[in-house]
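Researcher: I've got a protein sequence and the SMILES for coenzyme A. Could you write out the 3D structure of the bound complex as structure tokens? I'd like something to compare against our soaking experiments later this week.
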Amino acid sequence: MSTTLPAIRIASAVDAATLSVFARRVFHDTFAADNDPADMALYLDYAFSESKQRGELADPARVCLLVEHEGVLVAYASVFRGSGNEQVTAGHPVELERFYVDGAWHGRGVAAPLMAAVREVALEWGGDALWLGVWERNPKAIRFYEKQGFERVGAQTFTLGADVQRDAVMRAPLGAA
Ligand SMILES: CC(C)(COP(=O)(O)OP(=O)(O)OC[C@H]1O[C@@H](n2cnc3c(N)ncnc32)[C@H](O)[C@@H]1OP(=O)(O)O)[C@@H](O)C(=O)NCCC(=O)NCCS
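Model: Sure. Here is the predicted complex with coenzyme A in place.
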């Protein structure tokens, strides 16, 4: 059995194709059972095309972190400093846009180091709070975020295909904030 630990690195544009395939799969794995297949297909095409990933990876307001095990992608997170939210108290808010661990790696100590790396990036940007939107029907993720110091501060809509859903908005302080 391998003892190599997963390693975290910052993604670049050359990772667009791999990330597109992985991000589609883990989003589908997470939400397909609770959503209409047509809505799911529309959203996957909209959000995770290779060209969209390439554009986001080239955006200086974003950082995408990849977790790899023996060269295979097992988790990713993306952070964005271009968005605020009126429900989030912060001078310099940083949005945690995506946070996904492959199902085979859940409960194996990948999520916490990835969140620590997210905090490091946000702090380097001068962020004083992290915020995110999470589907109200995703209790596993909400529990994880609560364990990581996030608190619910509001709600917002999220549109999956043609389905308008409700996300909880959560906030965690950064540094001494
Ligand atoms: C939300 C998510 C990132 C959490 O990751 P996770 O690995 O499942 O969560 P945890 O790190 O809390 O681990 C789960 C359990 O394994 C345990 N665990 C963590 N690291 C461990 C390790 N190295 N060894 C043994 N057990 C470990 C934890 O203690 C936890 O148990 P608890 O719930 O009783 O505290 C993950 O479930 C996920 O990617 N889900 C799908 C995508 C998703 O919903 N993303 C959010 C969209 S907004």
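Model: The chain has five helices and seven strands. The pocket of coenzyme A is lined by residues 30, 99-101, 106-112, 134, 138, 140-141, 144 (CB under 6 Å).
Researcher: Great, I'll pass this along to the crystallography team.
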